[in-house]
UniProtKB/TrEMBL annotation:
Residues 1-22 form the signal peptide. This is endo-1,4-beta-xylanase. Coiled coil: none annotated. Residues 29-163, 221-334 form the CBM-cenC domain. Residues 185-218 are annotated as: Disordered. Its EC number is 3.2.1.8. GO terms for biological process: xylan catabolic process. Keywords: Carbohydrate metabolism, Glycosidase, Hydrolase, Polysaccharide degradation, Signal, Xylan degradation. Pfam families: CBM_4_9. Residues 198-208 have a biased composition (Acidic residues). Belongs to the glycosyl hydrolase 10 (cellulase F) family.
Length: 334
């Protein structure tokens, strides 16, 4: 038996009842195209060499080269909590353009942004993928990586870096250019650091100051139509998840869930890094049984908490293979 889903989790930022409030346009909180020749504020992650090169550039005449790498995590990093960024908790859109260094064989390998953040659970570190996981990148053309990152309250560490899969057992040099971080306008209408030569220049002005802090606008903390992958969803119990283009509610793909041998085996994702204590979240998805499946089954969302408790998010809904059914409920984090 399988279930196909498109999932959406929506959070009012201040735990209030959902209200329709238009979010302010995002502003550029950081941007660089390396045209000033400076590697700062980027740092080396591991014993790598960083240098600004004129060999290749996505825009302008310069980009940042990361070389002398000996492992996938050895890369370029950016401290999101330190100056000049000093990001406040909130939702950010992080993007950059990357390619393998000139002269690298035509093969491609996987790139993605990761944030190493702490504390997580009992104070351990956590590695959170930002955007598409292991996006194919070669030496032929510039490829954009990145996506949405939610900085939650109480983090003492948040290091953004580029993760690169090994290529034929080696760790190729790569180039990065046009890094941009969009976020909400700071309350004091702060300035934009960086050299401001990127392609997004001009849309980074601070709109009206003095937005009221509470209740906050409704923000989406996770949304996927599984168009580019499983997006952090995994199989619980014996369940296995994969993307399929056989059926879709919207777009071309959905998540296929197979191999289930018990009621609690299903698709799951880790909410912990995304949610805040005391806030209430709306969780919804469209589900159906795979085409050709006989009969119906009851489906609902459950949140598994620690200490162990299972919180039902919505009344269970009868689902068949005939049509997509909307599941929706709310969950308050204790
Ligand atoms: Ca540049």
């Amino acid at each position: 038996m399988g279930v196909a889903a498109a999932a959406l989790i929506v959070a009012p930022a201040a735990g209030a009842a959902p209200v329709a409030v238009a979010a302010a346009d995002p502003v550029t909180v950081f941007e660089t195209s390396f045209e000033d020749g400076e590697t700062a504020p980027f740092g080396a992650r591991g014993p790598v060499t960083l240098d600004v090169t004129t060999d290749d550039a996505r825009t302008g005449t310069r980009s940042l080269r990361v070389s002398d790498r000996a492992d996938g995590w050895q890369s370029v990093s950016l401290d999101l909590l330190a100056a000049p960024l000093s990001l406040e908790p909130g939702e950010y859109d992080i993007s950059a353009w990357v390619k393998l260094d000139t002269g690298t064989p035509e093969d491609s390998t996987g790139f993605n942004f990761t944030v190493q953040q702490a504390p997580y659970a009992t104070g351990e570190e956590q590695y959170l993928t930002v955007g598409q996981y292991q996006k194919p990148v070669s030496g032929d053309e510039w490829v954009e990586i990145g996506g949405t990152y939610v900085l939650t309250e109480g983090r003492t560490e948040a290091q953004l870096y580029v993760d690169v899969v090994s290529l034929a057992g080696a760790h190729p040099s790569f180039l990065i250019d046009d890094i941009r971080i969009l976020g909400d306008a700071p309350a004091d209408g702060g300035e934009t650091p960086g050299d401001g030569e990127g392609p997004g220049d001009g849309d980074g002005e601070t709109p009206g100051d003095g937005e009221s802090p509470a209740p906050g606008p409704i923000v989406t903390i996770h949304e996927t139509g599984f168009e580019t992958g499983t997006d952090g969803w995994f199989g619980r119990g014996d369940a296995q998840v994969s993307v399929t283009d056989t059926e879709a509610y919207e777009g071309a793909q959905s998540l296929s869930v197979t191999g289930r041998t018990a009621n609690w085996h299903g698709p799951a994702m880790n909410l912990f890094p995304l949610v805040n204590r005391g806030d209430t979240y709306e969780i919804s998805a469209w589900v159906k049984l795979p085409e050709g499946t006989e009969g119906s089954t009851d489906i609902k969302f459950t949140v598994a908490q620690q200490p162990e408790a299972y919180v039902q998010v919505n009344e269970q809904v009868a689902v068949t293979a005939d049509s997509w059914v909307f599941l929706s409920g709310t969950y308050e984090v204790p």
